[in-house]
Amino acid sequence: MTYIIQYGIAIFTFLFSTFSAWYEGSELRDVQWEWNHSAIISKWLNGAVTAPSDISGLDHFIYAAKFKPVFPILMAVSGLYIIILAATWLLRNQRNKLFMFLDILGLLLMLASLLTYQSPTKGLELFTMLFIVMGLLSITASAVIKMKLPIKENILN
After folding, report:
1. Which ranges does the record mark as transmembrane (predicted)?
2. Residues 62 and 138 in one domain
3. Which residues, including other chains, have CB under 8 Å from residue 21's CB and lie 6 or more apart?
């Protein structure tokens, strides 16, 4: 029952923050000078961006993360929470696999922080810090789980 309540709150938060970030990022359509820097996905899909209709909806999230990061950060945190909650539920009887999952997630988050490292915008600097903190928390949780494993299971696996 507690998983259902946690899932409900996390999914609602994720959906609300996703919609809000998308809406805030739609300001990109009005800021033509930012198209070269924030319409990255549109460039990959269409080539040069010459009109607001060329901008992909996914670019709205990039713009929002750079200049209005509250909802994108909330979206990232709630999304990670949903992923971790699903993993703990699915791997509840397999601590060694949960340990490995949290380690890999932590490493991926640390690598993601390199993508936004030394960004000129405050929003992406916040994302760098978020990825580093969440990565360290994931690795720490993994270490705690590994320490709680029985000695036999540690040796055999």
Report:
1. 7-23, 70-91, 98-117, 123-145
2. no
3. 60, 61, 64, 65, 68, 71, 72, 75
